[in-house]
Amino acid sequence: MKEILETAELPSIVFKGRVFTASELQLIRKLVSTFPGLSRQELANTACEWLEWRRPKGGLKTLECKQLLSKLESEGYLKLPVLRATKPRGAVTSVPRTQQGEAQEPLTGTVREVAPVTLKRVQQAEDRRLWRELVGRYHYLGHKVPFGAHLRYLIEVARPSPRVVGCLQLSSPAWKMAPRERWIGWSEPVRERHLQKIVNNSRFLLLPWVEVRNLASNVLGQMARQLPQDWQRAYGVQPLLLETLVEEGRFAGTCYRAANWIDVGLTQGRGRMDREHQRHGACRKRIFLYPLVARARAALRGEV
Q: Domains in the chain: how many in total?
């Protein structure tokens, strides 16, 4: 059996008409080794997203990337996970509509009056369907399967009776954001090595009929305490920093500010495929960061 040369120097290669630099191939190898629990499909989607490998109309070149991964494995540069049984090609993950997802009686009051508030990790099929329905129906971005590593939670309260009041999703970080990079102060090679120690709060939903004072900031605080252990257990990586993007003009980020997240600036708002800068400034998002450990910036720079 071919020896896996996990520390061997990767040369630049041309594959499917694209030049992959040594640093890009090293990033792919780091992705595969860091997240052994992801499927080949998830690894390929994540690599395409990071490297902006897309078709002219914007779709990810997942099939080509899976072929690239297989090539790198055949040449001994990495070890891919075992193939899994998957849905037939073209199968769609639908958003269900059930009675459980219909609007309920308003819930008002304070956090103390509905406590305890708990974050239930979504692991069972029933919880996955409910999470998908609530986010698909009530979050303005809807339901999308995230690329790469991710954890999902149902937000539950105990009083006056147990009920689900919202949803959370934590996923792989944004590939590049200039304000974040300036705040951390890391170099490009260091960013590539330590990027996966950042986790993105990519969905946060409190259901429209829930108006409990300070609930949002309470949930964010609890998330910051619970996530590190859950992420370490699921992916073998200790997260050092949380990030989130709040759409400018739609939300003020009040709950993040109340939970002591740090406002580091705005994205350019172009989108990944806007290479001619025709959409510069459109749909800009405010970047908030939350350190999970002391001296998080120094740790992300590899100094501690």
A: 2
pTM metric for this prediction: 0.72
Give the chain's largest Cα–Cα span. Answer: 64
In a domain, 231, yes or no: yes
Let me know whether 119 and 192 are in one domain: yes
**What domain range includes position 131?**
111-300
Half-sphere exposure of 109 (CA within 13 A, CB side): 10
pLDDT tens for 62-100 read: 888 999 999 898 888 888 988 765 544 434 467 778 888
The whole-angstrom separation of Cα 157 and Cα 116 is 6
Give the β-pairing of 107-110 and 285-291. unpaired
Q: What's the CA angle centered on 36, arms 134 and 145, to 5 degrees?
A: 20
Q: In this structure, how many other beta carbons lie within 10 angstroms of the beta carbon of residue 183?
A: 17
Are 181 and 254 found together in one domain? Answer: yes
In this predicted structure, the answer to whether residue 58 has a pLDDT above a threshold of 60 is: yes
Q: Name the residue with higher pLDDT: 41 or 205.
A: 205
pLDDT in tens, 135-185: 999 999 988 877 678 999 999 999 999 999 999 999 989 888 999 999 999
* C-beta atoms surrounding 212 within 10 Å: 22
Asked if 18 and 162 sit in the same domain, the reply is no
Q: With respect to residue 247, please indicate whether it lies within any of the assigned structural domains.
A: yes
Q: How far is CA 89 from the centre of its chain?
A: 24
Which H or E run contains 97? none
Within a domain: residue 285? Answer: yes
